[in-house]
Amino acid sequence: xxxxxxxxxxxxxxxxxxxxxxxxxxxxxxxxxxxxxxxxxxxxxxxxxxxxxxxxxxxxxxxxxxxxxxxxxxxxxxxxxxxxxxxxxxxxxxxxxxxxxxxxxxxxxxxxxxxxxxxxxxxxxxxxxxxxxxxxxxxxxxxxxxxxxxxxxxxxxxxxxxxxxxxxxxxxxxxxxxxxxxxxxxxxxxxxxxxxxxxxxxxxxxxxxxxxxxxxxxxxxxxxxxxxxxxxxxxxxxxxxxxxxxxxxxxxxxxxxxxxxxxxxxxxxxxxxx
Length: 274
Prior knowledge:
With about 270 residues, the chain is of the alpha/beta class. It has a domain at about 5-105 and about 175-260: Rossmann fold, CATH 3.40.50.300. Helix content is about 40%, strand content about 25%. It is built from 10 helices and 11 strands. The strands form 2 sheets. The protein has a 6-stranded mixed β-sheet, with helices on both faces. The protein has a 5-stranded antiparallel β-sheet with strand order 2-3-1-5-6. Residues about 265-274 have low confidence and may be disordered.
């Protein structure tokens, strides 16, 4: 497999309520006729064994892109090959081959990390002995052991996030999709998560993550795609993008240039099914 992910022309538009359309049309040229384009003709590739970062401000389309790749929502146009499978035509095969973590993942308060891991292992049809070994490894590495039998409702935000990571990796996938992996975490928990992502990459896993944090992208990513208003505006290694400058400097130069020229108007004026 030459690329783990090959995204071609991904576009996603959402129909807004009348109130939301009025509010957004005052601040975004990507809203026309009550339709907002969240992702606009986005193409990129992710190579085996690398950490690829989608970097952009809030509302740039990062989460929508990740959800399309994970087959939680369908693109209006375009497609992506994920682990050799089309997200449009083979969503079940894609889901079986990836691990997906989003900050929107809500764990049921009544259950414990131990129960949730076993439950999702059964859903993924992981052999019980293998699941038990993997659970021990993950719980120990992420520091969940002491809280394995504590109800989610009593866990800290950081422990919930680490439990979510363990659950997302229950089937030991080779491709891991993380949407804002350190969002809302304290510095200690965030360090545990970033260190573990580096370990996963060193073990041969491929990771794509979205973030708006420049230092996280600089620390973890082999290549970065910078997206604004749902469009890819720059892509490459840190050296290719900045030539020694920080990602923050590169980003704001691109942002200033883009808005000086005027953000492209939305291409959709009719209702597009979400």
